[in-house]
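Hi support team,

I've been running sequence recovery on a batch of backbones for a student project. Most finish fine, but this one hangs at about 90% for roughly twenty minutes before it completes. I'm not sure whether the input is malformed or the queue is just slow. I've pasted the structure tokens below so you can try to reproduce it. Let me know if you need the job ID as well.

Thanks,
M.K.
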């Protein structure tokens, strides 16, 4: 795989590329193919590849496709849709397989040029507009945890290391390095990377940015991680809990609101240095956590991770140091007001980042708009509390299964308002179908434990 760190200057500039900039770069680099990328309702990337000769028309008018064939998109009798590339998202892909390729993220439009209401990217844009109208920029940073296996079929481990382990160079470490070089060439800055708790589990943390850019970057980062692994003959997976008895993979999401380059979450001298805005935002996340879980944790397997004992958050609470809580406030460092943020710990990397960021922001904004009062922090280990202790302190749990998450989401006005009627109904139908399919399967657990005695 050939990577080009020098390409980073093309995507890291403060001024987004314009239509003419994109066409000039394509001509200068003699790029032949351009991928137009968008996401379906569950966050799977969808792509149409065009030649550079078609790019000018695509930038001006978009490219049509059959929306009825995309999960969660429109019905077959009204299937015409348009993928309209956004010039500011232009990237040159970090591998050269017979010629350079570029990539552009797209908005999905209807034939009349209006936004398709079921486009996940547009759902995020709608909520961001609410924040913008109040003068805020919603910043997000994601921690992507994932596993490397020798293949998807055999699931053989590449290492038996643990958290932050320093080992002689192995395949997993080299894969992370190659991935970071590829991300850097795409203008996607990485803040940290390290081995995680479980064997063959790794983490790459993306440096924070505005939420729309970060959603694009998160989707693309997952593609890069998988592609680098594929080129090295192994398999990378974002399945939340692929190994029984080991920690699962999360996507801890750091978030803050900025106004006029100042952090609206910071207040000198207050508890945890959180401003009233931040405190109401956190309470909004806590109060609406159960109803947005269907979006942040959308798979049957997501709930195999959300169980006590494996560092994943199960109980709805907040704290500064306690990592058994749902929301954590990283400790403030004097002179670093801009770093004041909150960390929402339940999402997993198999979520749709556009919808996940949208519902988290909507819950936080609801807390601010309604003036929610933040509950007391829980600094003790919640996992060892008795049910009576948790009940006395008002600590409730996230949904324990996809079925429970569906039932809670069905009654959520916040979720419906944030996603829009079309996406809300289609997401519920999709997830209900997944659960119905899963619950009809006879599992190895039942055959091993029930068949011999029943």
């Amino acid at each position: 795989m050939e990577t080009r760190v020098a390409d980073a200057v093309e995507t890291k500039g403060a001024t987004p590329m314009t239509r003419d900039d994109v066409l000039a770069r394509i001509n200068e680099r003699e790029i032949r193919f351009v991928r137009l990328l968008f996401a379906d309702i569950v966050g799977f990337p969808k792509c149409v590849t065009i030649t550079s000769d078609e790019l000018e028309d695509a930038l001006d008018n978009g490219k049509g496709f059959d929306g009825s064939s995309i999960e969660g998109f429109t019905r077959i009798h009204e299937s015409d849709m348009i993928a309209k590339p956004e010039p500011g998202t232009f990237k040159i892909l970090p591998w050269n397989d017979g010629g350079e390729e570029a990539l552009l993220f797209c908005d999905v439009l209807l034939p009349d040029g209006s936004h398709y209401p079921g486009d996940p990217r547009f759902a995020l844009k709608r909520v961001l507009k609410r924040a913008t109208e109040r003068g805020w920029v919603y910043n997000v940073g994601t921690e992507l945890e994932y596993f490397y296996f020798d293949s998807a079929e055999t699931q053989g481990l590449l290492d038996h290391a643990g958290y932050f382990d320093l080992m002689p160079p192995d395949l997993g470490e080299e894969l992370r390095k190659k991935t970071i070089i590829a991300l850097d060439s795409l203008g996607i800055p990485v803040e940290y990377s390290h081995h995680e708790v479980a064997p063959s589990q790794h983490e790459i943390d993306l440096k924070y940015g505005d939420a729309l850019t970060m959603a694009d970057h998160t989707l693309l980062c997952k593609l890069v991680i998988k592609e680098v692994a594929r080129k090295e003959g192994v398999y990378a997976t974002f399945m939340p809990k692929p190994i029984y008895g080991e920690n699962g993979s999360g996507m801890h999401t750091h978030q803050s609101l900025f106004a006029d380059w100042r952090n609206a979450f910071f207040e000198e001298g207050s508890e945890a240095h959180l401003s009233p805005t931040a405190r109401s935002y956190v309470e909004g996340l806590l109060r609406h956590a159960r109803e947005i879980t269907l979006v942040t944790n959308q798979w049957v397997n997501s709930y195999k991770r959300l169980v006590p004992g494996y560092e994943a958050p199960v109980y709805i609470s907040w704290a500064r140091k306690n990592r058994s809580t749902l929301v954590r406030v990283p400790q403030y460092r004097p002179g670093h007001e801009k770093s004041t943020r909150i960390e929402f710990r339940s999402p997993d990397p198999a979520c749709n980042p556009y919808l996940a960021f949208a519902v988290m922001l909507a819950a936080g904004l609801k807390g601010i708009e309604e003036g929610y009062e933040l509950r007391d922090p829980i600094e003790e280990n919640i996992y060892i509390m008795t049910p009576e202790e948790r009940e006395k302190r008002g600590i409730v749990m996230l949904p324990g299964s996809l079925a429970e998450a569906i039932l809670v989401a069905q009654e959520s006005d916040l979720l419906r308002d944030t996603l829009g009627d079309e996406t809300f109904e289609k997401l519920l139908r999709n997830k209900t179908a997944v659960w119905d399919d899963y619950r009809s399967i006879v599992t190895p657990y039942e055959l091993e434990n029930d068949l011999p005695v029943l």
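--
Follow-up from support: It reproduced on our side and the slowdown came from queue contention, not your input. The chain has two domains: 5-115, 125-445. No action needed from you.
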